[in-house]
TrEMBL record:
Its cofactor is Mg(2+). Belongs to the DHPS family. Keywords: Folate biosynthesis, Magnesium, Metal-binding, Transferase. This is Dihydropteroate synthase.
């Protein structure tokens, strides 16, 4: 059952503190919102330094785009993109997350100093569970996400008879699989996978009923930043014009129990979450 803390590799976070802000660091040329901006090592490190100055709690490094329709990236290219960034940031004072589904990348990133594996495939790829359960994985945090089909086809008329029940059932099954592999609950975070095989209405229902997805009280991650559902709400605005909506969605997720919000706009998100937390606690918390 859930614990009072989240073990994220070298870092331990109390579950009774404000929600954590995970900043997105895409080392890719083709991500849907900021593709190419931080593709080089130096540009990625500059952006990471900026996020740290803005108060980020976790840095999520991704070398392969998972936007709808994106093709799989060869392993060697993914490693070449992410490992130099992990090695350069391993002593930055913040936990490093790796957004990958490849077991080989998981092992290499953990060896290089990563603290969390963020897997859109929910650790279903052959060898993934073994990689994160191995002694070498230590106490790395594990984010398990729901996705219908795969990035190439996930947005081709996604359908559910009961989106809440089906997503919760998937997360339940994955939690059981992780436990059977000997992984402690303190390492597990669950992600309903907003935008991964869901329509805008599916996403809004998942957000509205987010507490139902916290299997056994495990912490939840919500990643809605700049996504197409927000664009639909705003009448088709492009990703870079969805910042205010992204902040509102992050606060909505926190209000409904999200423990981690994954965002592009770190400073604004940190400010909003801190303000929401102060109102909720009815006091200013210097440690927040």
């Amino acid at each position: 059952m859930s614990t009072s803390y989240f073990q994220c590799g070298r870092y331990r976070f109390a579950r009774d503190r404000r929600p954590l802000v995970m900043g997105i660091l895409n080392v890719t040329p083709d991500s849907f919102s900021d593709g190419g901006q931080h593709a080089s090592r130096d540009a990625a490190l500059r952006h990471a330094e900026q996020m740290i100055a803005e108060g980020v709690d976790i840095i999520d490094i991704g070398g392969e785009s998972s936007r709808p329709g994106s093709a799989s990236l060869p392993l060697e290219q993914e490693l070449a993109r992410v490992l130099p960034v992990v090695e350069a940031l391993r002593d930055c004072g913040k936990p490093l997350s790796i957004d990958t589904y490849k077991p080989e990348t998981m092992r290499a990133a953990l060896a290089a100093g990563a603290d969390l594996i963020n897997d859109i495939w929910g650790l279903r790829m052959p060898g993934a569970l073994e990689a994160v359960a191995a002694a070498e994985a230590g106490n790395a945090g594990l984010c398990v996400m729901h996705m219908q089909r795969d990035p190439q086809t996930m947005q081709e008329a996604p359908h559910y008879d009961d989106v809440i029940g089906e997503v919760r059932g998937f997360l339940r099954e994955r939690v059981d699989a992780l436990r059977a592999a000997g992984i402690d609950d303190s390492r597990i975070v669950l992600d309903p996978g907003f935008g991964f095989g869901k329509t805008a209405d599916h996403n809004l229902r998942l957000l509205g009923e987010l507490p139902q997805l916290a299997v056994d009280g495990l912490p939840l991650l919500a990643g809605l930043s700049r996504k197409s559902t927000l664009g639909a709400i705003l009448g088709g605005r492009p990703p870079r014009e969805r910042v205010a909506a992204s902040i509102a969605a992050a606060v909505c997720a926190a209000e409904r129990g999200a423990y981690i919000v994954r965002v592009h706009d770190v400073q604004a998100s940190v400010d909003a979450i801190k303000t929401w937390w102060a109102v909720r606690q009815q006091r200013v918390d210097a440690a927040a």
